[in-house]
Description:
By secondary structure, this protein is mainly beta. 7% of the residues lie in helices and 48% in strands.
Amino acid sequence: MGGRAQPDRKQLPLVLLRLLCLLPTGLPVRSLDFTRGTDNITVRQGDTAILRCYVEDRSSKVAWLNRSGIIFAGQDKWSLDPRVELEKRTPLEYSLRIQKVDVYDEGSYTCSVQTQHHPRTSQVYLIVQVPPKISNISSDVTVNEGSNVTLVCMANGRPEPVITWRHLTPTGREFEGEEEYLEILGITREQSGKYECKAANEVSSADVKQVRVTVNYPPTITESKSNEAATGRQALLKCEASAVPTPDFEWYRDDTRINSANGLEIKSMGSQSLLMVANVTEEHYGNYTCVAANKLGVTNASLYLYRPGTGRVDNGSVSLAVPLWLLAVSLLCLLSKC
Length: 338
């Protein structure tokens, strides 16, 4: 709090005594409500603090001061801080009101009264609480499966906020401990998703922020559906793969790559690819290979288009018999978008 030029702190008791002596003389104070020690007053940042002080005689000489110097001497305001005022709802009250309290207002305040023999004082310690506020949190991050990940969440507040982490999706797991840093060693694809940092203290509701962790991993075929169809009818072969980034697909008949032409059409949407045959002929029956690839790897599955009544019930399986050169060429072609 700003104000007039203040005396040296070592001289404050003597200066205050002289100051009180200069105030208007009145009857001696019979008794004062200053028998207790230092009282604590807790106020939230931005609120108004009222530091109470009472006397039993209107002629008492009273002053307020803090660690920086004199605030009020009688009715004379020494502080230049516009937030500070006297509150006198009764003739015997000499309270100090501080509006829009901030952390720099925290500390000890003294109400000093001149009695018949010597000054008697009452001390109030103002404690300023600050709601929790997350000041820094990791940005969204993308890593490869198996990597180590460290998430950071820092917060301010008084009292010091307690920081907790929770994996929102898909597990909903809460992490034990109170840590600014969350370390995930050898992260898996199941550990991808949103992570929530919560900073809490008893001042107000918690501050919450989120960070998204994306885990890249190579494709895995999750479904490969064979089909039967009579000649002259329409047929559909379906292939799905799980991967991050989203996989690219190619289709092969034996060692020959299939393009959308001559009655065949390939439709790939996200993690799913369809091979559609508009009009089945004898030449369309047989084994097909679905290849899924991203920058981390390539995989494949065999599917069959067969005649009705042949008794085949195979819904497709991962094929290990596909030549390695074909997988390598497929991966190179998919990555280069050939």
